[in-house]
Amino acid sequence: MITNEINAGVLAYLGDAVYEVLIRDYLTDKYKVKAKELQKEAIKYVSAEAQANILKNLINKNVLTEEELYTVGRARNYKTNSKPKHVDIKTYKKATALEALFGMLYKNKDINRIEEIMKEIIGE
Questions:
Q1: What CATH number did the domain enclosing 77 receive?
Q2: How many domains does the chain have?
Q3: Is 88 a catalytic residue?
Q4: Cα 9–chain centre separation
Q5: Alpha-carbon distances, residue 3 vs 7, 9, 51, 74 (angstroms)
Q6: Are 114 and 105 in contact (CB under 8 A)?
Q7: Contact 3, 94 (CB under 8 A)
């Protein structure tokens, strides 16, 4: 499937779920605590602010390929009808771009690349 033909909002929708599962899997392996504590830890990775900062770091470290940067740009520029409640629009769009990246990689079945990026995110 050619992911450039898929709406950036749809990629972000899918990528949100993929990213959330990966973070939860990582946290449940790393911490043997109750769900409430896991949720507190997850905020460090899944909040809009955290996702925007993660994307910024991936870009600054030149981790992303040209195709990945293209998808990120499409998602950042995607016009949405929803308005974020607790975050400014720029931060929201950057977070959406990270989600779209994961959506694109998942649709492309590029599990190795997803794992590489996750290792960069979690610092392994």
A1: 1.10.1520.10
A2: 1
A3: no
A4: 13
A5: 8, 12, 21, 11
A6: yes
A7: no
Q: Which residues does 102 contact at the CB level (< 8 Å), separation at least 6?
A: 14, 15, 16, 18, 19, 22, 114, 117
pLDDT in tens, the chain (124 residues): 566 789 999 999 999 999 999 999 999 998 888 888 999 999 999 999 999 999 999 999 999 999 999 999 999 888 776 767 888 989 999 999 999 999 999 999 999 999 999 999 998 7
Kindly name the residue from 16, 25, 88, 110 that is annotated as catalytic: 16
Domain residues for 9?
A: 3-122
pTM, two decimals, is: 0.91
Contact status, residue 52 vs residue 94, Cβ threshold 8 Å: yes
Phi/psi class of residue 109: alpha, beta or left (left: φ > 0; alpha: ψ in -120 to 50)? Answer: left
